[in-house]
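ENTRY TYPE: protein
CONTENTS: sequence, structure tokens:
***
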Amino acid sequence: MSDTSLVITRTIDAPADAIFDVLSNPERHHELDGSGTVVSDDRTDRIQGTGEVFRMNMHAEDMGGDYKTDNHVVGYDENKLLAWKTAPAGTEPPGWQWVWELHSTDSSTTEVTLTYDWSAMDPAKAQEVGMPKVSESELEESIGKLAAAAATQ
């Protein structure tokens, strides 16, 4: 861990393509959320490349209850990488991103790294917002939930 990111790595008993299939489908993101803030997808198609934006319905008491986020896809390499920058709906991303990296260890297992990075945020804004908004244990839970979701593929 650094002062501006959290990184969790775990080996999952599932092939990279099954894991990527779950990650690239925003309809399934609520299944993966260890923080409990993702409610549902807001009518988004499967992610197919950088430059796309998918919208999520969210809920967090410290954010005033229900809200929406726009997630701008900034990294895409099928079965290897998926990354997006999150912003309140209708705004430009303020500088944090989620990065999922997949490395096949063999045909049935994959090393998954989840990075929650807010290094591009203005440090004063990051402190004001209370970064990180998601804990290391919540990220670990997200990877565990991804493992369970990928096992059902």
Notes: Residues 12 and 110 are 5 Å apart (CA to CA). The first helix runs from residue 16 to 23. The radius of gyration is 15 Å.
